[in-house]
Amino acid sequence: MKRLSPLFLLALCTTVAACQSSVPSGAHDDPEGQPTAHVTSSAAAEPASTASPAVPAAATYLPDVHKGMAYADFRNAILAHGWLPMVDLRCKANVVGADYESLCAKGSDSCKACDDLPELSACSGDAVCMMHFRDARTNRQLEVDTYGDIRDRAAHGTDSQLNVTGWTVSPSASH
Fold first, then answer.
1. Domain contains 20
2. Which positions ≥6 away from 172 have C-beta within 8 Å?
3. Is residue 95 helix, strand or coil?
4. Is the pLDDT of residue 50 over 60?
């Protein structure tokens, strides 16, 4: 098997990232004039002339939220705006691991996290978690990324060690 050069891999990753952050050409505006296509919380996804460092693009869909805020505060804000948790039936396998049944029987806090946060989909070994919500009115999907200790899932404000690192709003729920 031929080994790929690091330079080629870097170019490939850059190309893939650029493709994933672009808005499809068939995107239409919603009644409020906002694009209904894939929108991310990254300012890089906005055209340079309209990018605002203080307000992520997805903030037009998600008022009262910002990167770095405690997940519990973020969650309360979006639930108040009509977003609904999307249950991931594989949460315990994704968060705890293949042996989740025996670990959950022993009372693992990671198992409780799936029960407390039905939107929780997965957590990696390096403290990155992913959650999913659906807008009941428009069926848009919200994917939220966090970093930190999942045991702080109910901690608010600066006391929390589980913080939002970004999110993506997609035109329809596909999860």
1. no
2. 139, 140, 141
3. helix
4. no
